[in-house]
Hints:
Layout: E1 22-24, E2 27-29, E3 41-42, E4 47-49, E5 54-55, H1 92-109, H2 118-126, H3 136-146, H4 156-166, H5 171-186, E6 190-196, E7 199-204, E8 211-214, E9 217-220, H6 231-246, H7 250-264, H8 279-295, E10 300-302, E11 308-311, H9 330-334, H10 341-360
Parallel strand pairs: 7-9
Antiparallel strand pairs: 1-2, 3-4, 4-5, 6-7, 8-9, 10-11
Amino acid sequence: MGCIKLHILDEYYKEPELKISYHKKNLTYDFCGENAHSGLLNMNGRMYDPVIGRVLSPDRYVVDPFNAQDYNRYTYCRNNPLIYIDPSGEAIFGTIFSFVTNLFTTLFVKGGLDFTSKSSRQEAWKNFDPSASWSMTNKAWQINMGLYKTDPNKTGGQRTWEFVSRFTWQGLQTGLGYVASQGHNLFGGVKNVSYYGGATVIESYGSGWGAAAFSNFIIGRRGITNDPADKLFQHEYGHYIQSQKLGPYYLPTYGLTSLVSAGLDDKRKDGSERHDYLLIEQNANTLAFKYFSKHVDGFNKYDENGNFIETNWNYNANPIKWYDWDNVSPESINELSPINPFFIYMGSYYQNIFRIILKLNK
Length: 362
């Protein structure tokens, strides 16, 4: 549910400035600026009746079975919309769970209830700030918001489908990405959350590994950023584009085959990773390179005569086989035509088979 409106009458408050709703030309508006004079408010997720202070359909989830408030599924955010908001009507649970965990840790682990030491209590509560950018609760909220970020380079219709597809066409990988991100955060593994082009980039505290994309959630090692010049983000954004194209077929085909390929951990004669040349990985690089070249100003630099100078694409880390990196041009980029997804999958499958045979024969 994207917005909420409260009716606070003058007689309930001595200070008129505390009123939340306002009137203009005899029409009442909610927080989203939506005309609500008809009586019912369309909150996107559910319809809301401001007279009785209830939504007209129940929430599909009981967020916390140990909280009696959550069994009244006709309320919005436990009747506390000044603290919580729930854009989808159901996604608040990740933030609430993180908040409860953060509070529990402060109370029972960090010494928030340590009555033997005043300094310990003060130190524990000094570091309890759910609104701070470093807090687990704040990062859980940012992960929630990632569900609603779309690519500003798309048309209105394309952005609508990008959003809808996350819960339908890409539902499986979106669910896995969301749960993995929130779980990673719950155990203190998330350092930063940022957004780019509809993707949500989760930077971890841990290093020594790479990154993985589940729908729009890109979870990566320490140092990954939402910068189009970041080598990890570049490649994983290509996987997000693949996910949008393949939907429910992505994980059992591209995802599983890529996972097997990465597990083989073998190298070519020149020392490069064979995994990087899997057709699925090559396709991800191609899609991302074309996207950034098209939408990021100055991604590929040319002199005043149109001669190529340099590119922000990390072609050593993210190779595109047979592409001439000394002559990058709009024409050569357009010639990077995507292969049929079926042939990409089958080609990658047989690449893995060949590599497994090579390993067994060593």
